[in-house]
Every structure is written in structure tokens, then in C-alpha cells.
Amino acid sequence: MATGSISSLGIGSGLNSNDIVSQLMALERRPLTALTQKESSYSAKISALGSVKSKLSELQTASKTLSDPNKLAAFAATVGDGDVISATADTFAKTGSYAIDVVQLAKAQKSFSAIQAGGATFGAGTLSFSINGSTQDVVLASGGNSLQDVANAINDAGIDVRATVVTGDAGSRLVLTSKETGTDNAFTLSVSGGDPNLTGLATFDGAHPSATAALNSIITIEGETVTSQSNTVTSAISNVTVTAKAIGSSTLDVARDSTGIETAVKAMVDAYNSLRLDIGTKSAYNAETKVGEPLNGDSVTRTLLGRMRDTMGTVPTSIAGSDYQYLFSIGVSFAQDGTLTLDSTKLNNAVATDFDGVVNTLGAYGTAIDTMATAFTQSDGLIDNSVTGIESSISNIDSQRERLERQFDLTEARLRAQFTALDTLVASLNTTSTYLTQQLSSLSNLNQ
């Protein structure tokens, strides 16, 4: 009594075995879903820590500005007539006022060759420019050069003279100009090679209205004459650069510039508050939904917040006992929500009263903030170590997932084998039932 083979799950038993197996496997896969959720939370935490590290780096950058007195002790140079001069003051300038007269502007030599007939060509030879006691050669290797070819050769040689060609109604001229101003950059030109056309280029037209002799700048500062190869003078006033722009007179005032200090302090306050807000947002817990943000309960960020408060509230040893040992004495205070506020008026008053004292205070706190931040931002710091640990946990999840997937495959194969056996058994019983029914029916017919 053959029963045949079961080719499709559930045919023999009449059950929807495929759906039953799928539902059973869905229950089996619940641990995998939990692992995926855990992996997602780990990834979110890594991203959140990356954001915190970035904000902390911004605070560290701002603190480095505070700890560098050269960036705080700024000076401003103010000129009376900006058409005559411009000026800038360096970090170590000194306060002062000056009367300045521009007597002569520095100029670059500009020389014009004699007019060259149209179609003139120039043979092989060497153009030798004498500049400040040295010779700079330009070699024309072959003949048949146009005037523009000669200019191109001069420019390609990289010497201290540049060349252009200007063509008017009467013909073309080679225009030679020093790349730098001043008498040290004046030049003369001699030519060798025997080509008369080429030799003619060395004869400059001194009567040309646009021809310019090399000149140095001459200015007087408080009656003292200063001569320079360029229009920029750096040696006359210590750590102050004066640039002559036109002949005339002007005043120059050099004074402390406190705006740099206010800008630097505000940058630190803003960076501190941005970091604190970022940590608060990513550490929050929603009591209604009972869901926490990625860094809720995170020990590293809790430690960071504590260190931030301690650093801003602890007097650095180097300024202990000074008039401005506390940040609130220069206008930086904690608000009730833990953020920092800046009283610009109080800061500027402190700067006006004791500039050096304020710079020392900012430098001490800037160094302290930088040191605190380094413990978290360096490559083997607290944040990176935390991220490394989380990444290790994610790697473990991947291993667990692979192990579970192998287990699921075995479980599903076992379930399908069991239902296949059930199908076979039920099909066999159904066949036997049908046979017995037929036999009983035959006996009943015989008895009639």
C-alpha cells in the first residue's frame, strides 16, 4: 500500500505548515531583533560621542587663543589720511602718535626700446641684464624671432625683469619693467650675437613719456627721513608697518585694541555653552515615553561635565591671590542653568584698569581648559577609549548574530523535517482510512 512522497509542505496533513514554520521562526528570531536594536543604540552612542568630541575641540581651540598672550595683547594702528598711508601694528608694538610725510613713492624702472618696424625679426644672441651688480642672461638659440618671441623668452627665463610688446601707429616697442621697486632693482641691457636688430633693442628711448626711473620711497616720521626700496617701511617704528600710498601728510596713532580680548572671551563662552547644550540634549531622558537619548547615563560625559565646571570654577595656581583670580571678576559668570554669561562692560572695564592682569587671568584659565580638554580629545583619551569599547561590543554583536543565524538555519530545517514527517504520517493514515472505508463498503454490499 504505497503512500507516495510529500512534495509540498502541508499537502499531506492539510495544515498550513509553511505559515506555522514562519511564525515559529519569527519567535525564534526575537533575540536577533534585540541584538539589532542594541547595535543601533551603540552606533547612535558613537555618533553622539563624536559630536561631543567635536564641540570639545572647538572649546579647546578657543582656550588656546586665551592662553596665547600674543593673540590677546593686540594693538591697532589708526591713520589720519588713508589715501596717503596705511599701517598695521604687530603684537609687540608700543603706544604712540606720529606725524608722517610721504615725500616720494618707490617706483619700478620701466624702459622702452626704439620703435621696431613691422615684421622685424631677431637672430640668435644673448640679452644680458645687469641688476644690482649681477648679470641675468636670456639666450635666443635661433634666428627668425619676432618681437613677441623675444618678450616671451625674457619672461620664460624667470629673471627680475618682465617684458611686454606694445604696438602703435608708428610700430612696435619692447617694454621692460623691473619686477620690484627701488634703485637696487634698476637694470641695464647689453646684447651679444651680432644681429643689428637684436642690438637695437638695448638702446632705450629715454624721452618716452611713460619711461620711469627706479626710485626709492622717501618718508619722514616725526621729521626723521626714512628711505626704502619699496613703499612698505617696517624699520622706522618698532613692530609697526607703514605703507606709503601717495605723496602727502598724515598722522598715525598706535593704541591698545581690547576688541581682540572681548572676541576671544566670547568665543570661549560660546564654545563652552555649545558643548554643554550638546551634552544635555544627547543625555536627556523623556519621562513620558521612558526613552533616553544615546548618552543618557553615560559616565564619560558625566565626568566631562564635572571637569568643565571644576575647571571654570577653580583658581589656577599661577594667578592665585591676584585681583582677577576669578572669572566673574572679568565678567564671565555661571547662569542658573549652568551655562556661562559674559558681561562685556565688566570685561572692558577690567581691561582698561589692568590690561596685563586680565591677559594673565585669561591665559591661566585658557591653559587649564586646554589641559582638561586634552584628557578627553587626545587619540587615547577618555572619549576615544569609550568609542573603542563600544566598537568592540558591536563586533561581539556581529559574532552573536552569525552564531544565531546558523542556529536559526538548523532550527528551521528541523521544523520543516518534522512537518514533512507529519505530512507523510497523516497521508499514510488517510490512505489506510480510505482503504478500510472501501473494504467495509464492499462487505456491506455482499450482505444485501
Explain this structure to me?
The protein is α+β, with helices and mostly antiparallel strands and 448 residues long. The protein folds into three domains: 35-71 and 259-386, no CATH class; 75-105 and 216-256, no CATH class; 110-202, Immunoglobulin-like (Sandwich). It contains ten helices and 18 strands. The protein has a five-stranded antiparallel sheet with strand order 1-14-3-10-11, with no helix packed on it. The chain has a three-stranded antiparallel sheet with strand order 2-13-12, with no helix packed on it. A three-stranded antiparallel sheet has the order 4-8-7, with helices on one face. A hairpin with a 4-residue loop joins strand 15 (285-286) and strand 16.
Quick structural gist:
With 448 residues, the chain is an alpha+beta fold. The chain is built from ten helices and 18 strands.
Number of domains: 3
Tally of helical segments: 10
* Poorly predicted segments: 1-7
User: What gap, in angstroms, lies between the N and C termini?
Assistant: 28 Å
Main sheet summary = 5 strands, antiparallel
The number of strands is: 18
Strand ordering within the main sheet: 1-14-3-10-11
Proportion of residues in β-strands: 15-25%
What gyration radius follows from the Cα positions, in whole Å? 44 Å
Look at the helices and sheets and give the structural class: alpha+beta
Task: Map the helices and strands.
Layout: H1 17-28, H2 30-66, H3 69-72, E1 75-79, E2 85-89, E3 96-104, E4 110-112, E5 125-131, E6 134-140, H4 147-156, E7 161-168, E8 171-178, E9 187-192, H5 196-200, E10 217-221, E11 224-228, E12 232-237, E13 240-244, E14 248-256, H6 259-282, E15 285-286, E16 291-292, H7 299-313, E17 332-334, E18 340-342, H8 344-353, H9 355-377, H10 382-447
Antiparallel strand pairs: 1-14, 2-13, 3-10, 3-14, 4-8, 5-6, 5-9, 7-8, 10-11, 12-13, 15-16, 17-18
Helix pairs in contact: 1-10, 2-6, 2-9, 2-10, 7-9, 8-9
GO biological process, one term: cell adhesion
Main location: secreted
Domain Flagellar hook-associated protein 2 N-terminal: 13-109
